[in-house]
Specification:
This protein is mainly beta. Helix content is 11%, strand content 49%. The chain has one helix and 15 strands, in the order αβββββββββββββββ.
C-alpha cells in the first residue's frame, strides 16, 4: 500500500471518529471518583436511584456543581450540596445532563454570563480551618468578605479551597459563585 493511501485511510478514520464523537457515540474519558461535573440544563432531577422511576430528591439547575461517585447504567451517582437544606445529598443524575465543562448561563438582561471554573467569593468574613469540622483541627487564617477562592473538593457542607496565600476548609454556605460577563 502506498504512503498516500495510508494517509488517506488514517484521515478517513480520524474523520469518522470525529463525527461519531460529535454525535456522542464515542465514549468520553472515564469519570473518576471526586471529579466535579456541571448540570447542563434547568430542573434536572437528582433521584434516589438510577432510573426515572425513582423519587426526585432535588432539582438541579444549569451550572450547579456535583461530585461524581460512580456510574450505574448511564446514570451518575453524585454528591450535591443543597444550599437551601445546608446539607449534601447523594443521588443519581442521568449522564446526558452533566458535563465536565461549565455551561454558560443567561442573566435577566440577556447578556451571556460564564462560570469562572470553581471560583467563588466569600460572603462574610470567614475562618479557614485545617479540617472539615468546627470540633477538630484549628483555624488557619481568616478571609475577608469578598475574597476569591477556588473550590477543589467537598465533604458534606464543607469545601476545601485555595486562595492567594494558602488553602483549607470553609463552610460552603458562606460562598457565592463568581460569574463574568462575556
Amino acid at each position: 500500500m502506498s504512503m498516500a493511501k495510508t494517509v488517506k485511510r488514517i484521515f478517513a478514520l480520524a474523520l469518522i471518529v470525529a463525527l461519531l464523537a460529535g454525535f456522542g457515540i464515542v465514549a468520553q474519558a472515564a469519570a473518576k471518583r471526586g471529579d466535579n461535573y456541571y448540570c447542563t440544563a434547568n430542573h434536572v432531577n437528582l433521584r434516589e436511584g438510577p432510573s426515572s422511576s425513582w423519587t426526585s430528591l432535588a432539582k438541579l439547575n444549569k451550572g450547579d456543581v456535583v461530585t461524581y461517585m460512580r456510574q450505574d447504567n448511564g446514570w451518575y451517582m453524585v454528591k450535591y450540596y443543597d444550599k437551601h437544606l445546608n446539607d449534601v445529598i447523594e443521588g443519581y443524575v442521568y449522564r446526558k445532563y452533566l458535563s465536565a465543562v461549565s455551561p454558560t448561563k443567561s442573566s435577566k438582561n440577556s447578556k451571556t454570563v460564564v462560570s469562572v471554573s470553581n471560583t467563588y467569593k466569600t460572603t462574610v468574613n470567614l475562618r479557614v480551618r485545617s479540617e472539615a469540622s468546627m470540633e477538630t483541627g484549628y483555624v488557619k487564617t481568616k478571609l475577608k468578605a469578598g475574597t476569591k477562592v477556588t473550590v477543589l473538593k467537598q465533604h458534606k457542607s464543607w469545601v476545601f479551597v485555595t486562595y492567594k496565600g494558602g488553602s483549607g476548609w470553609v463552610s460552603a454556605k458562606y460562598l457565592k459563585k463568581v460569574y463574568k460577563k462575556k
